[in-house]
Amino acid sequence: MRASLLVAAIILSATAACGGGENRQTVTIYTSIYEHVIAALDPVLAKTFPDVTIRWFQRGSEDVAARLNSEIAAGRVAADLVMTSDPFWYEELKEAGHLLEYRSPRAAGIPPALNDPDGTFVTVRVPVMVLTVNTSRVADGAWPRRFRELADPAWAGRITMGDPNRSGSAFTAVAALQRKYGWEYFEGLRRNDMLAAGGNSAVLSRVMTGEKDAGIILLENLLQARAQNASAPIAIVYPEDGAILVPSPMAIMKTTAAPDAARRLYDFFLSDAGQSALVSGWMYSPFDHLEPPAGARPWREVFSATLLPWTFEYLHETTRARDDIKRRFNSIVLEPR
Amino acid sequence: MSRFVGRFGGGVAAGLLAVVTIAPIILVVIRSVATPAGVTWRHYQEAFSDPANLQAIGNTLVVSAATVLFAAALAIPAAWLVARTDLPGARRFRALLLVPYVVPPYLGAIAWINLANPTVGWLNRAAGGTVFDIYTTTGIVWVLGLFYYTFMYLTSLSALENMDASLEDAARVSGAGPFTVLRTITLPLIRPAILAGAFLVFAASASAFGVPALVGTPARVHVLTTRIYSHVTTGGLDGLYTAAALSVPLLVIALLTWMLADRLGRGGRITSVTGKASAPSRVALGAWRWPICAAVASLVFLTCLLPVFAIVLTSLMNVVGDFRWSNVTIDKYRYVLLTRPDTARGFINSFALAFAAATLAVAIGTGVAYVQGHPHLKARRALDLCVNLPYAAPGTILALGLILLWSWPLALIDTLWVLLLAYVAKHLSLAVRSITTAVRQTDVTLEEAARISGAGVMMTFRTIWIPLLRPAILAGFFLVFMPAFGELTMSILLVGPGTETVGTVLFALQEYADPPSASVVAVLILAFILAAYAAAAALAR
Lengths: 337, 541
Hints:
The structure holds two protein chains of two kinds.
Chain A: H1 2-17, E1 25-31, H2 35-48, E2 52-58, H3 61-74, E3 81-83, H4 87-95, E4 99-100, E5 121-125, E6 128-134, E7 159-161, H5 168-191, E8 195-196, H6 200-209, E9 214-218, H7 219-228, E10 234-237, E11 244-245, E12 248-253, H8 259-270, H9 272-280, H10 299-303, H11 312-320, H12 322-334
Parallel strand pairs in A: 1-2, 1-3, 7-8, 7-9
Antiparallel strand pairs in A: 3-12, 4-12, 5-12, 6-9, 6-10, 6-11
Chain B: H1 2-21, H2 23-33, E1 34-35, E2 38-39, H3 42-49, H4 51-84, H5 90-96, H6 105-116, H7 122-127, H8 137-162, H9 165-173, H10 178-207, H11 210-216, H12 224-234, H13 236-273, H14 289-315, H15 331-339, H16 341-372, H17 380-392, H18 395-406, H19 416-441, H20 444-452, H21 457-485, H22 491-494, H23 502-513, H24 515-540
Antiparallel strand pairs in B: 1-2
Helix pairs in contact in B: 1-17, 2-13, 2-18, 3-13, 4-5, 4-8, 4-10, 6-8, 6-11, 6-14, 8-10, 8-11, 9-10, 10-13, 12-13, 13-18, 14-24, 15-24, 16-19, 16-21, 16-23, 17-19, 18-19, 19-21, 20-21, 21-24, 23-24
C-alpha cells in the first residue's frame, strides 16, 4: 500500500516536472538583454503564453555567439530563439544556413535597412552607443563632445569602454569607429591607456565611481541609471560626430524543436506589447511610430545624424571582416606590449 | 558464488569511479594530439606559437613562485608564534588565521579590488592618491598569498605541534639561546613540512582561476588557466583542442609539485611520530610580546576584517566610493535578490549541488576508506590514483575533460549532472582522507568479532563502522560541502542555461555585467560559508 502510494507520487511529480504531460513546449532564448528587462518580461510572457515554458540564457552578445558557435560545431544546439546585439553575427549565421526563414506579418513597418530581405532575421530593438562623462570630476566645458576627441592626449588614463570580444554593442562601436576613423584612432586610444573590459554596466560603474572620467557606452544604461538616481554624477553626451546604432536582431534557429512556439514569441516581441516592454527597458524601437525611451531624444533626431549610415553594404563588409576587426582591436588595445 | 558477485560488483564500482575521476583528465591529454579528425600536432603548434600563451606560461611560473615566497613570509612566523611562543591569545589567533582556508579566494579578489582599485579603492581614497594598485601582477600575488598561506601555515603548524621537543630541550640545556634553537633545531626539523606546504601553495597558485581572471585581466596579465578559459569559451571546437594542448604543461606543473608535496608531507609525518617525549616548551617573547601580538593581529586584520569590511561597505553604497550616510542603501540587495532571477537560481543550484556532492563523496569515501583500511585488499594503488589525481589536477583541466567526455554520445553537458560529477571528482579526496584517518584508528578486531558472530558485510558496516566513523563522516561532509558550494574554476566552464551557480553568478556580475552588485552576492556567499563553517564547528564539538 505504502509502496504503491510512493510510486504514484513519483509518477505524479515526474509528469509535473515535464509540464503536465500535455503538448507543452519549451523555448530556449539566448539573449544579451539585461536580466532586469527579462524579469519584467517574464510575467507578461507567462500570461500571453501559458502553454510555453521559456528558458533564458543571458550573457554578453559575443559570449552568447561563441557559445552558440561551438554548439553548432558540436552539432547540438540548445537555443531556439536568439536575441543579441551584434547584427554582423546574424548575417554570418544566415550565410551558413543556420537560421529559419520566417517573414513575420508584424515586421511590416520596420525600415528596409533594418530587416533582412531574405526573412531570416529582423531588428527587434535599436540600442544606441553614446558618450558619458563623470560630472563631478569633469567640468562642464571640458566634456568630450565627439568620439574622435577620446584619442586626444587630454584623455590619457581617463577613458573606458566595453570589451568587443564580450559585448556586441562594444563590437559594433569598434566596427563603426574604425571604419570612420581608421585604426590610427585606436592607436590613440591605446596611447591613452583606454580600459576596454566587461559590458556596458561595467563601463557605467567605472565612470560613475570616478575610476574613469569618460566612456563609450549604451544610452540605455545611462537612462536607467538616471531614472534610478537623479543625482548620479553622470551625463549623457550625444556625440556631435553622431551616435552609433546597434540594430539588434532576433532570429529562430533552424534546428529548433518548437518552431511554432518560437514563431509566436517572435511575433510577440514585434507586437506593440513586446515593443513597449523593450522600450521601457530603455531601448529604441525599430518602428518609428513608437515613443522613444523615457528621457531620450526623439527617434528621428538620433537616427538622422549617426556616425555612419546603416546600409546592407556596410553590414556585409563588416560581417566578412568580423574576426579580423576583433584580432586587430585585441592586438592594438588589449594585448600587453 | 557470492565471492564472484562481490568481486564483480567491486570491479564495476571501481570502473565507475575511474570514469568519474580519472577518465576526463586522461581524455584531455589524448585529445591534445588525437582529435576525432585524426592524430596531429597542429594544436600544440597553435597553442605554443601564440606569444600570448607563452607569456601566460611565464606569468604562471612567476606568480606561483612569488606567491610561495609571500605565503612563506606570512605562514612560517605565524605558525611558530602561535605554536611555540607565549604569544598572548595564541589559541584564538591559531583559529582566526585559518579562516581564509574556507573562504573562496575570488571573494578576496573582489574585496581587494574594492580596496585597492588605483583610482577609487577605499584605501587609495583614504590615502588621497594612488598608493596601491591591485591591477598588477603584484596584486594577483598579494590576493593569492593572503589565502594560500594557510596551506603552509597548516603543514608548519602540525609539524611544530607534533615534533620531538627533547632535541630543543637538549640544545637549550647546552646553553643555546631561543633564537639559536629556532635556527639550528626547530627550523631544520620542520623543513620538510615547510617545503610540502610550499609545493602545495605553488600548485594551488598555478591552478587558480578566479583571482588572476578578476585582478589580472584589466592589467592585461594572463596566466595559463585564464588563457585555457578563453580558448574554450571563444574558440569553438578547435579552441577546445588548443585548450587541451595548453593544458598539458599546466597539468605537468601541478602534478609534479603536488607529488613533491605529498612525498615530503609523508616524510615529515613520519619523523614527527617518532618518540614524542614531552610537550614542547614555549619560548618567552619577553618585551617583544605585545609588539608581536600587534603584528599578528594586523595580519588577521588584513586577511579577515579589512576585506569583509570592504565588500560589506561597497554592497551598501548607492554610488560606489561616495562615503556619506545619505549614500547608504539596501537598494542593491533588493535589485540583486528581487529583479535578477539568476541570483536565487544560483544559490538554489549551488546548495543542492554541494549537498548532493558532499553526500555522494562521503558515501564513496567510506567505501574507499574501508578498502584502504584493509591492507590485504588489492586495488589500493588504483583507488589512490582515482581519489587523488582529480584533486591534484587543476580544476580547469578537469572541467575541460568533462566537456570532452560528456558532450557525446551521452550529452550531460549543460545539465546539473556534469557539475555534480565535477564536484564529486574534485573533492572526493577530502572526504576520503577524513574517513581513512578514522578507519586507521579503529581496531579491526571489532569488525572481526561481528563477523565471527555471524554478521554479513552490510550488517558489519551498518552496526560497527558507520557509528564509529560518524564524526569523521560528518567532517568529510563539510570538507566537501564548503568548497563545492563556492566553486568557480570548473563551474565557469560547465554552466549552461539555468544551471548557474553562486560562483558563476558572482563572476559574471563582477567581470561583465554589474560590478557594484557583485559585492552584494559576495556578502551573501561569505555569510553562507561562514555560517556553514560555524555549524560544522558546533557539530564537531
